Amino acid sequence: MHGGGPSGEYSTCKMFANIFITFVGAGILGLPFAFKEAGIIEGSIIMASVSAVCIKAMLLLVDSKNEVIRRRREYQQEAGLLRKGGGGGGDGQVDTDIDFGDLAQRTYGNTGWWTVQASIVLSQIGFCCAYLIFITQNLQSLIGGLSANTYLLGIMVPQLALAIIRDLKGLSIFSLMADAANVFAYCVVFFFDFEHIEKVGSHAKAIKLSGLAFFFGVVVYCFEGAGMVLALEMSVPTERRHEFPRVFASALALITTLYIAFGVSGYASFGENTEKIITLNMPPGIFPALIKGCLCFSLYFTYPVMMFPVSTILEKQLSKTRSVTYFKGNVLRWGLVVISGLVVLAVPDFANIMGLIGSTCCMLLALIMQTFKQQLGHLTSSDVFTLFMFTSAHERT
Questions:
Q1: What residues contact 171, with CB distance under 8 A and at least 6 apart?
Q2: What are phi and psi of 287, to 5 degrees?
Q3: Which of 316, 377, 317, 315 is nearest to 106 (CA)?
Q4: Considering the entire predicted model, what is its pTM?
Q5: Domains and their CATH numbers in the chain
Q6: Which residues lie below 8 Å from residue 91, measured CB to CB, with a gap of 6+?
Q7: Pfam families from the entry (predicted)?
Q8: Alpha carbon distance 179, 26 (integer Å)
Q9: What dihedral angle (degrees, nearest 10) is formed by the CA atoms of 260, 265, 268, 272?
Q10: Quick one: residue 221, left, alpha or beta (phi over 0 = left, psi -120 to 50 = alpha)?
Q11: pLDDT digits (tens, 9 = 90+) for 286-324
Q12: Which of 101, 287, 341, 358 could form a disulfide with 220 if both were Cys (CB 3.0 to 4.6 A apart)?
């Protein structure tokens, strides 16, 4: 995502595409199983409701950032007048580079800052663990002959080399290829599901209250781009940022529709035999193998991108108390890769990882910590309703 260029070079389609790519991740592959646990009607209602609250909450985050900038501008204008009266002058520049952590610190102090940073670190590691589980289980189904742990060890070794890349530009070509592979594979799996709906669709459950809590965690996990909302908004040229809320809401509405359709069609296609990762339901064959291979390739190179902010945050904190050499930075990155591998060995379950991360870290980032606007003293009746939904959602999990 790159902003700051002329507005003519940054189209609405590019804005939409950036949002789409940020939010549509591996979580979609676990939605059919989640719908099996919750039922079609219950799942659709929860998905739509959570989506509406998430959209409102994430736009509140953007509003809060703009409120902080407005207050900074007012303060600097007042200070400028004082300097002018005293013979000084100000450059009129206002720092608009505000991230999630800055807002948390402004409204909740150091506790808020640490909460956000910890949530980002743990959620990103959780996403990486989910990717590793997906890759190992699909490799095992494709190739066979070896245990999932053996495949895990095999794919972890190259990740140690990718982990020491300090600039995301070095991974940009792989990232673009991964995005293309993702879209292609999701479309094929989607249409493959539709071919089998008539076989078991009539036996799909409508409501299953016992799966409510699990489904809720998975749904919040699927909105894994919540921590990137401010980065997305700042990537848009200043003169076009007024369009962001409308485009963002439209993109999330489309993504929600896609999530519901993908989850319902996958569950309706395989019924009670729906696997925790929908690709495991695909039959043997060259084409299904190609799809699994595309997804494995995509998630494999998404792993270092998702781990990048974790190493950046931790390295920045370590540098405040001691010098961090290049080698020490590498050791930190290697340690994170090893930790994610150990987590997968301990919890080799894609659905459980999604539910756990979704109901804890993603809940904080997508819902609970979005109440900055309340703390800033600008709370409308609509915001009150959203905050009530935050609290209710948090209590259910």
A1: 162, 165, 301, 304, 305
A2: -65, -50
A3: 377
A4: 0.75
A5: 11-85+96-101+128-396 (1.20.1740)
A6: none
A7: Aa_trans
A8: 11
A9: -80
A10: alpha
A11: 888 888 888 888 888 888 888 888 888 888 888 777 777
A12: 358
